[in-house]
Protein: Caspase family protein
Organism: Polyangium sorediatum
Amino acid sequence: MSVASSPLAGLSLVWAADGVRPEGATLWLDRKAAAGHDSLSLLVFRDEAPFAASGAALEGATIAIRAFPHLDEVWALYLLACKRRGEALPPAWEAMCRYTGDVRQGLWPDRVPPEHAVQAVYLALAQHHLLEDPPRRETFLDDALAFCAIVGKKLAAGARLYDDDLVAGEARLERFVALLTQDHKLYEEDLGRSLGFMAALPGSMSAGGAARTLPLLCIQRPVSTQFKLWARTDVRAPGGRGYPLLLVEQDKRMIVLSADPASRAKVGLLAKALGAREARARAAQGKEAAPWYDGKDHGGTLAAAPREGTALSFEEVVACLEKEWRLRPIRKGQGRGRLVVVGALAAAALAGAIGLGFFLRNPDKPAPIADARPAAVSDDDRTGANAPAKEGRPRGSKGDPLPAAEVISLIAKNDGPRSIEPYALLAGVCGYEGEHALHSPCRDARAMRDLLLQKYGYKRENIIYLVDQPAPGDKADGAPTAEGLKLAVEKFRARFGDKEDSSFLFYYSGHGGYIKGARQDYGVLQPAEFFGKRANLPSSHKGWDMQDLVSDIRKGVPSKHVMLLLDCCYSGWAVGAKGDDELETHLGSLWKERAEVVLTAGSKGQRAWEDDPDERSWAWGGHSAMTAFVLEGLSVAAAGTAAADTNQDHVVTDEELAKFVKERVPRSVQDKKDAKQTPTLFRFDASLPKSGQFLFVPRP
């Protein structure tokens, strides 16, 4: 097909089918033409082989492009058209070339609402035109090249590819944004008839060699065209970071298992087990064996049925995964980051159904995620203090509850809770002025530091203490600006090393707020200088997005036990979901396992209150309400036990402290301020098959 229209004048374009290069093509915009490179457009941008041609050299060139081209290929085509016209490519466009390579690898680097992401809008555009019968190729090219021109113009003008909304206000693209919005509603329908599991991946399937448990979503013939986008970014998945594992039956012959590349899960290794089942199924049908694709060209993130289709049913594939990954159902409606085990009767029915063909149902009718009403709970799933112990193996996600005498004995041992080296980052911001003035945060942070040093054995050199107005004679490690906080976390390993057998407490007392986004609101810590000399900077430079806190700490801090204490308004935005209502007070036998918890001062719609310095008597000792009761709960009596130590075992667990604070703060704030403030504990370790607890252990 010769293209004489303006954007591609002087070039001829042919459409390649089935990944085969058409005869006579001068340039082939396909990954096979540049083996080993993720971004073809980057090669075009750099004028490197096999795309080292520019200006007049492209006159009359015949360019082959796939029938459904990738964003990378369309951007490369746009660059070639610009070069053909003799236009210089702006340096800022290199970022788009790298972005298309990341997208080709399945990554999601965008920090704008999903329906406004460049890759999502392009995909909606391509699907709108090219999935029709017959495909509308001319209008696709017209819209796709106009899309590239819009993005290119904004990047050249200084827009940030990952952070700025490049499609907002563009009338030509609004219908594709609308299509994405509608497609998300279709995903909700797909989700309602899907299967959800926690999958236990062995260490061989992880880049780091550690066994992990990840959420898996299984969808049969999704109605949504961008189900992968919505599933990968679905905050309702256990852990709140989407479903990194997807099993999708696209039709009766094509089934694909994929992993989010960011998860570094090597699901392609399952191709061998699936291929063995495929061979048996084909042999029974008198057909030759055909291997499953092992994702070798996708970093091992795919396991896909043979090109000609699979002889396995969706149920048989799920049964294979159940055997290899010990699948556990996810209960429908569970809160973000909180895994609730399905009752024993439902689990037994599920196990039996897997063995008999998975729910023995009409294969054309997908099964729903397990219902939220458990019939009963087995001994293996109970974690309460009254549950009977099972000899030889831990019970429940935290193991057996340990009696107080055993815990006290354990503390005295060299490998007991005191063997965990404690670290802390404590921040108090009280340099706000005018209407933003706060009076207690620096005092809060100092009191927390002194308590940890005097009663809990923290070493001063292991505490990063950031306050912007230290008391006379009180030495701080710097000011708690957004940059200071983030750098302290980022450089934690350089300062303290890679000791995993340690704990890390992040404490923040100061302002918090939320920002009305174009499509999605978000909470932000508002530390030092937020309202001052950094006020005109973007929120990402002067504040810290609350939902990034846990992930940023994971990147910088190797500690196995992590707790965040957020004493600020709207702190519930840090997690954005319902927290734990049922808090247990015992120490579990698996206390050494990974623990990640966040205790917030209130929900994402609530203010956090402090004492008024002008009042004659303070209700909270000159502190904020939350910090006052945290300090009280951790205060140690002469007998060596803290006030929050419910079972007097000389250890305060994260849930004991949360229970203490949750019982007192709401009542006190109601009495003093006639307002609501509800501290909440959120567990980010609940999706793990074995989870530990953050511990405060008073020193003798």
User: Anything to note?
Assistant: Residues 282 and 289 are 6 Å apart (CA to CA). The longest strand covers residues 212-220.
